[in-house]
Request: fold
Amino acid sequence: MTPNLLHIPTTRARTMRNIIAATLATLTTLAPAQDLTHKAAPQDHPVFIVGATVHTVSGDTLNDAVVSFNEGRIAIVADREIMQRIRLTADTEVIDAEGLHLYPGLVCAVTQIGLAEISAVRAMRDFNEVGAFTPEVRAAVSVNPDSTLIPVARTNGILTVGSFPTGGRVPGRPSVLRMDGWTWEDMALDDAFGLIVNYPRVRAPDRAFPGGRGGDDQDDNIARDLRELDEHFAAAEAYAAAKDTDPDLPADLRYEAMRPVLASAGADQEPVFINADDIDQITSAVAWAVTRGLKPVIVGGRDADLAADLLKTHDVPVIVKGINRFPKRKDAPYDDAYTLPKRLTDAGVRWCLSTADETGHIRTLPDEAGRATAYGLSPDDALAAITLWPTQIMGVGDQLGSIDKDKLATLILTNGDILETATVVQRAWIDGREIDLSNKQTKLRDKYRAKYKQQGLINSDD
Reply:
């Protein structure tokens, strides 16, 4: 029975009203946050895509080419004439792709897809674990396969993502996800790869800057943050050494999760993804990681070109988090962010492109790559930055990112250059499974287009 709020003290009544309102808000937002599209069934017949312009990324672009795939993997990449020497089985699907373009599925390296839906609802924000050091956290296990944001991104060709938890100093391990599946296990290409570190700020704010405090307290806090991070990794190294000596020692889940990124992992060592933007942060982070024998990857990297020599010397890749942003410094040129990809390429730094928005707007990834070409980046590099290069940085470059024999058949077929905003993705496959490219917005478009046709407000052919 609902309590009578008139007979409850004011403070308690207000609290209960807030609880009831929050509960109702959660219940009313859960329904529209549910993706109702069907997941794709496993590939059960061979597919030949014939006549397309094939952008292999790893090699030459092939005109009027043939790509075939079966059981989820690419079998043939060749000129069209090969069709004269192939005997097709009765169940083979042949797609006439003349005038169309075939690309590897796009890859957004840093996202919170499946971990966040509606930011105003706490129950829909699963990317931030409680605690400063939570290396045992794996993003994949919290991913919601029915997120409505997934089909929106797929519509624009993004078929693979890195899902990154946030919060704290060491928030956990990122996961590499397919953008389709009934469960998180279906989606996970690699449920835990590397480790994320939110590197401490290493310079106190300028006292002269509005809101900047500076002073000894800030310097002490910075020194404390760096010391705690270093101590945590030293403890993990000590644990790994002790465990190697005596395998019967009790397991510590936190330190076990860190073992793959430590130098003791040897040839199988995984990277540490370090969030750092400022030049002093980047240089300090690289020096710290190299000293500890880690394999750093800089995430963010706004000032990465200023540390190009250091990054090149230690072969440190950079994941650029978007170019749609303002310059940070007052004396920076207006196109500072737009030209960063070109500057990194010219400096010989390995890099890839992600988006600044980690949830609902990752669909803009190819648009941002295309914009970078307007500021000097070559189209070939722009395409590689959202296909092959991120897969190499995330450790799945042997399976994804280019159109090569034996790689996973994760592909998009478009009516034009994927770097052009007006281009439409017409068909898509993940591991050879054809994907439904509809989403909530396309269904609403179709609904109201039908309405206006019935009312005679638009032509039936529109």
Residues 1-10, 19-32 have pLDDT under 50 and may be disordered. The chain has two domains: 34-105+402-462, 106-400.
